[in-house]
Amino acid sequence: MYLEKEVALAGGVDACVSARLDRLPPTRYFRGLVARIAIGGWFEFYEMFMAAYISLGLIHSGLYRATTTSMFDVNGFASFLGSFFAGMFVGTVALGGFTDRLGRRAVFTVAMLVYSVATLAAAFQTSPVAMDAWRFVAGIGIGVQLITVDTYISELTPNHTRGRYSAFSILVILTSVPTVAVLSYLLVPYTALGLEGWRWVMIIGAGGAVLIWFVRRGLPESPRWLESQGRLAEARAIVDDIERRVVAETGQRLSAPAPDAPRAEATDNTASWRDMWRGRYLPRTIMLSCFNFFQTFGVYGFGAWVPVLLFTKGITLTHSLLYTMMIAFTTPLGAIGAMLFAERVQRKWQLVGCAIVVAVAGVLFGMAREPLPILLCGAAVTIANNWLIGIFHTYQAELYPTRFRARAVGFVFSWSRLSSIFVGFWVAALLKHSGVPAVFVLISSAMLVIVVMVGALGPRTNGVRLEELSQ
Questions:
Q1: pLDDT tens figures, 141-179
Q2: DSSP class of 188
Q3: How far apart are alpha carbons 96 and 90 in whole angstroms?
Q4: What's the predicted TM-score (pTM) here?
């Protein structure tokens, strides 16, 4: 058996990292690897969607108001959302380059610790200004973490299963949404040990700092990143280990690596911010920047405001939380759909389809008054939003080369953080002056921009090697 493994591995030792990784079959080892990286993202999504489920607790405690008197009114709930997304904007646009310079694994760990400490501190604040300050710091950690997770997974997995594994990671991550919904339903209306329920929801979210030390043990650095840094011996050692694990699990010899597979830029460390605005990357950067700016109107304009939107319709606090929790349970269905169709339908067209569903179902949700239409339309928007999340995290990481992938993804993703700062204030203003239907006119208009931009400028990526997409 030992000799068989050695023979199986020998054919790929001198091949480039990309060719060796891309020939590997899907295995439990890869699923486990992706799931462990996704745990880092689990707490990030817990934090992002937590705002929706503790919103009524924050408002009823008197810490915030549902509406705002001006664009930057710190006493309005929109300020709670805006401060967090402002931090994410800084984390993605200003600090995303650290992932390209320092490596995926190290930044993955540090970002998680920053988020956890800041969230724990925020749970004990008693003024909007102090709360917003800690939420800003937490946002910085999460902004860096999200782009690191996307980059990390896209570089570790084979090209023919890259979309499926990335969607699987989103499925793991999105289980945090029903989790925080249930916790909020059980805790927000009550007080325990002298602390309001919404504070306990935040404290639980800070637990990622403990888990991350166990998760990071045994996680390999991205061999593609190591190869792009000229650290060839380390890259090959990691791929050797991955191949051994795959052979041990499958009991089969590996096929020979593709002889003509393009290599990562092995000694090119001269990538700059300007590279993403040149050649084939220019339309991709424009398309992804527009996509990210407008996708938050649907994902967070709806997701972060569901209980408040329902409460504004005249539904009681308890029923608003109950309906929100029921809608939240459909969240993983979007990721399951993304995982099943990730490699079967071009990812660009899945993004277009999801945007259309959000636009139509959102308008219907805004007009609904009875429980069944509210739940059905809310579920449709939630499923489509999370299907979109499961696809676009894969899609944007595919469109740039290894040498500046994290930096470019950080830049285009930062547009979603920038728009998120303002979406909360716009939603609050529309609720105050025009009601719930106007909110969904705004969301639907944003979705139509996505349909046009992705449909016109988005390249096809399914099954294509990362290095070929960047040639």
A1: 877 777 777 778 888 888 788 878 888 888 888 888 888
A2: T
A3: 9
A4: 0.70
Say how far apart CA 416 and CA 307 lie, in whole Å. 22
Count CB neighbours of 259 within 10 A.
Answer: 7
Report the SS3 class of residue 95: coil
* CA–CA separation, 335 and 347 (whole Å): 13
334 contacts: CB under 8 Å, gap ≥ 6? 174, 382, 383, 384, 385, 386, 387, 388, 389, 390
- Each residue of 100-114: pLDDT tens digit? 777 777 777 777 788
Distance CA 39, CA 56 (A): 27
For residue 97, the enclosing domain spans 2-256+263-463
> Is residue 471, in this structure, part of any structural domain at all?
no
Dump strand ranges (E) for 20-130.
none
Q: What CATH number should be reported for the domain holding residue 46?
A: 1.20.1250.20
The verdict on residue 468 lying in a domain is: no
Q: Is residue 79 helix, strand or coil?
A: helix
Question: Among residues 459, 431, 455, 457, which one has the least CA distance to residue 443?
Answer: 431
User: Is 287 part of a structural domain of the chain?
Assistant: yes
Alpha helical stretches, state H, 304-346 = 306-312, 317-328, 331-341
Cβ atoms of 389 and 170 closer than 8 Å: yes
The structure tokens listed for 326 are 């029921």
Q: How many angstroms separate the CA atoms of 26 and 413, rounded?
A: 29
State the total domains in the chain: 1
